[in-house]
Amino acid sequence: MFSSITNMTKPKAKDLHHLFSEEAKSRNPSQLKQAFKHFHDPNIISLGGGLPLPEFFPFDNLRTDTLSPPFAEGNNAPITAQNKTEVSAQKDKDTDDSIPLGVSLQYGNSAGNAKLLKYMVDHTKIVHNVAYEDWDVIMTVGNSHGWDSVLRTFTNRGDTILAEEFTFASAAECAHGLGLKIVPAKVDLYGLIPEELERQLDNWVGPKPKVLYTIPTGQNPTGSTLSLERRKAVYALAQKHDFIIVEDEPYYFLQMAPYTKDLEERRKSLETPTHQEFLNSLVKSYLDIDTEGRVVRLDSYSKVLCPGSRVGWIVAQKEVTERMHRLHEVTVQFPSGFAQTIVYGVLEKWGQEGYIDWLIELKKSYTKKRDLAIDTLEKHLPKDICEFIAPEAGMFFWIKMDGRKYPKYKELNGDPLAIETDIYERGLQHGVQMIPGHWFIINDKTDPPQKELPVSDDYANAIYFRGTFASAPEDKLVRAIELFGEHLVKVFKK
């Protein structure tokens, strides 16, 4: 069982209305959605909503099989009669562990189905000790949708936001599509550098950004995981400079034991911990230090169940989720009813403890793949050219090189983007693909321009490549890294 958190008095969230966008401030509740509350009132015959009768839905039942906790044979074991859990839902039958199809396939609450929302709230209470009282959860169609909702809630066209200098390309394109500028915040191999962020904000010219977008755990693309100490320092800057921290955390539960070459230590790291030991091993979320409600956490089942589920959720103060609710009422409505039915059915059958069992097995699986990838990198990448660290979360590794050592450095005018592109294209010819770092780079300029802060020579000439240990089976993962090592030796040693 999970240990209970002491019910001490917590502060209320800070009023952040002044940070809301003009769009968020102007949204009113949908009158039609408000009218739906009367649809199931037995004392009222409702002709007010365009809800088709469930008897015309051509779906009578839904069933799938999944593995049963505690997943003793691993979470990729074949499903058999002995380890199978049946998940089902029927059109008209309402049970504790299912959502009737007559409900889930109907127009519903734009915050999400109440049963699945409760599961998400209970999960959040188990994993995080949210540091203030009045928080809430709203469902999304995955974290990309959640990010779009955040931007529309807090930013206006022409605003500037902050993000790690290398970040998830789709998140950047979403912001650019809304007319925003993204100013890079300096990182190292361990994530955001609070001292550099403080220097940047203290020297800011013009209106300061209202939003910091960050992937603090298993960062995409760098694979870095920000320590609790750095998170506390960044949060203090959010208070000082009055901005929102958006923590995009799809990789949060893909945290792994520290990399070691010691085989006995590896064996111990793959032993099954208790649930509380597992939870204690997780780096704290910004939620755990957020006493003012200025953190918006994006969560998703995409990396822990499957990307195609398109079910995620946002944890934030209630005033923020209420504004997002108004947005979702007239945009996405709510995530797919089929998806909510299946996800809830599986999770409720597993229970909160069974879901933790699943996450523990994921940790083991990703630790094994990470160790294999780093072992192979250590063996095959030229150490006089490459620098990297073993990620402790996520699915990516990040390789840093000194562009000045590239034989075509002068020919390419020392341009890191041109050097990365040249290495990338020649790598494809060698049969291997690693993604160039500049595909993820953030370098927007503000108007008026920010004061240029000095950059160390070490970073001025650095080039980067991102790889993943998640998408290929073990034999192909090893072969790909071998090929990349051969490729680097060939192109750098000319």
Automatic annotation (TrEMBL):
Its EC number is 2.6.1.57. Residues 71-95 are annotated as: Disordered. Its main location: cytoplasm. GO terms for cellular component: cytoplasm. Its cofactor is pyridoxal 5'-phosphate. Residues 104-408 form the Aminotransferase class I/classII large domain. Keywords: Aminotransferase, Cytoplasm, Pyridoxal phosphate, Transferase. This is aromatic-amino-acid transaminase. It comes from Trichomonascus ciferrii.
